[in-house]
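Progress note, sequence design subtask.
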């Protein structure tokens, strides 16, 4: 197979780059309100609240989340290969977005005891969200020159946190009343508001973002057969990308902890530190600001000192933050941890996407980003299960946070095997076969 040709379209200008960043702005409403702040806590406290206080509700939630990530991991590689072969990243991005928006809106009908309904709708929305993130991220290689990839990725993450901030502000009136019976309808309505925000904010992306790749002639089989043939070829050739392989292993480990911390943070604050839903909104409003600043600032830093050094710095900070979070006793201490964690989160996400973009050969953006996505999804399977089981066995989420510090440390050790310069050089040698 030959690599995809590039369409003769002009380089991405400021408006198109802004449109690409706007997808991060839009989809952050889902991660912020559904995965982290509002729906996760609602599910544990209300939907599955009847399961008791022995960690059973948390266990059901984290297992459901993990299964959705596993399914996303299985779907990402073939869909990424098809998107590259058919030059259909934009089409797939639109489809996954609409599925996520629809299922998110339907969460407004999930009530106490609707455990299966709540898990299935969330799972479908979460799978679609992660596939959308994959297809959007794959455009980075097309729209950003190598010397500006870090800052453009940072602009996306930074604008994303601004979107999270705005969606939190919009949801606050619906959520601040908490789980009182008189406020439950209003609380559920916040899920529909999230869906509407997501849909409306993606309009610039679909109006202005261009598909620059050209379709590649198929191998004569079905679209799925060609996709798996393409994946098999890439897998056979992974030896050429030794630093990409080493990076994906390290990314699997440290993202395991990051994903788990994101999913568990609101549940930890609510169950361990007695944060009310209103307190959680204010807390995440503040941390969104520092996360956005961290994404933009460290995106520029990655262009100056390299993505590897930037990621290494963030992992050292994550180890310290996880250890500190396990010891917090007051709201003020948790706020302090959260402010720093927000900046470190934005920095790590920006630099991680940048390094993957630098290691990606031309013409295989969606496919290589699908491997990146798969790695992250398997991370999102293992970490939450470890967190759930440690919580259930020990009866304390504090020990579960300590287990995440161990993951960060192992990830940092594995990441030191990556040679950034060698990985970029390997990506510049386009496959010819």
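Output:
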């Amino acid at each position: 197979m030959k690599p995809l040709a590039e369409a003769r379209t002009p380089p991405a200008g400021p408006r198109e780059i802004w449109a690409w960043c706007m997808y991060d702005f839009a989809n952050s409403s889902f991660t912020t309100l559904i995965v982290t702040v509002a729906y996760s806590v609602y599910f544990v406290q209300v939907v599955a609240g009847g399961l008791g206080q022995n960690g059973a509700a948390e266990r059901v939630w984290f297992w459901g989340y993990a299964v959705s990530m596993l399914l996303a991991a299985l779907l990402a590689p073939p869909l990424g290969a098809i998107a590259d072969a058919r030059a259909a990243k934009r089409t797939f991005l639109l489809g996954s977005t609409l599925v996520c928006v629809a299922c998110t809106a339907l969460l407004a009908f999930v009530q106490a005891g609707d455990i299966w309904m709540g898990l299935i709708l969330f799972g479908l929305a979460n799978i679609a969200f992660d596939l959308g993130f994959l297809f959007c991220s794959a455009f980075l290689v097309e729209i950003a020159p190598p010397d500006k990839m870090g800052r453009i990725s940072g602009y996306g993450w930074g604008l994303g946190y601004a979107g999270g901030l705005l969606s939190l502000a919009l949801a606050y009136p619906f959520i601040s009343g908490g789980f009182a019976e008189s406020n439950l309808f209003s609380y559920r309505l916040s899920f529909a508001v999230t869906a509407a925000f997501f849909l409306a904010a993606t309009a610039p992306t679909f109006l202005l973002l261009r598909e620059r790749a050209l379709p590649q002639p198929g191998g004569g089989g079905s679209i799925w057969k060609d996709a798996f043939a393409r994946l098999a070829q890439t897998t056979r050739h992974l030896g050429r990308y030794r630093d990409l392989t080493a990076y994906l292993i390290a990314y699997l480990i440290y993202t395991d902890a990051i994903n788990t911390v994101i999913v568990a943070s609101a549940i930890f604050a609510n169950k361990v530190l007695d944060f009310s839903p209103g307190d959680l909104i204010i807390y995440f409003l503040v941390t969104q600001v520092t996360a956005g600043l961290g994404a933009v600032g460290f995106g520029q830093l990655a262009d100056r000192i390299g993505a590897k050094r930037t990621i290494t710095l963030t992992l050292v900070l994550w180890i310290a933050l996880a250890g500190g979070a396990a010891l917090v006793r007051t709201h003020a201490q948790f706020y302090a941890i959260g402010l720093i964690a927000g900046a470190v989160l934005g920095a790590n996400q920006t630099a991680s996407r940048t390094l993957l973009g630098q290691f990606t050969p031309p013409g295989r953006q969606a496919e290589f980003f699908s491997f990146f996505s798969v790695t992250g999804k398997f991370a999102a399977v293992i970490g939450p299960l470890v967190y759930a089981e440690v919580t259930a066995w020990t009866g304390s989420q504090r020990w579960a946070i300590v287990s995440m510090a161990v993951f960060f440390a192992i990830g940092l050790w594995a990441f030191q095997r990556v040679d950034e310069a060698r990985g970029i050089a390997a990506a510049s040698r386009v496959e010819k076969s």
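Residues 1-8 have pLDDT under 50 and may be disordered. Work on this subtask will continue into the next period as scheduled.
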